[in-house]
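$ fold --in a.seq
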Amino acid sequence: MSLEFVDTNVLLYAYDPTDPRHGPAVALIKRLVSSGVGATSVQVLQEFYVNAVRKMNMAPADATQANTRFATWPTFAPVAADVLDAARLAETVQLSFWDAMIVHSAAAMGCATLWSEDLNPGQIINSVTVANPF
């Protein structure tokens, strides 16, 4: 079974019970945990922490605890060459650098699916299919 990469927004909605996307986000994460196919990146962990603390007013310790759970998944840690590859992808596919880094991370891990609402569902980039769980 192929890994499925989870973008930051999905993780944030799973921790915000007031958001209408909370239920689908929680269901997706539970499925990924139980099937053992969830994957993420250092970038996602960083973005989750910053946005959870700043925008959701989550206590820093709680954001760290959540990230501790997500960090048990296979986690892509980029090196300089990955940054350059993502920059080239951003130019080629016309994505923001940060979105290109997410796609590059998923592709580098061999993920078949990228769960995100920031990209076009059904789009295939570098063998990764974008899917929107909402």
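$ fold --in b.seq
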Amino acid sequence: MKYLCLAYEEESTVNSLSQSEWDSLRKETLSYVKELQERGQPIAVEPLQSVRAASTVRVRNGKLSITDGPFAETKETLGGFFLIDAKDLNEAIRIASHWPSARLGSIEVRPVEAGLKEEKRY
């Protein structure tokens, strides 16, 4: 089954890391991605640009509204994602728990629905 893992961090926390701390975290992350690749589990792993580059789009009553930044009022913002193939939720959670930035923020693990089903909502 596919699971989307959303990595949330506070940009200020990440930006406050020393160069050596950042290099260590990045090296650990790349090593973990390689380990997952060797097991055939990651489908996609992508970082996102800063939340300062984000736009939130809404259409209400046919009118377009664009807001700079994310919609949620939170300190932790979406920093990236990884899409994985895991046998079940427990395995997906285990994989997410080893993601290095989970120590700085949080990883949301969400099952991917197989196709858009007309009869089903969230």
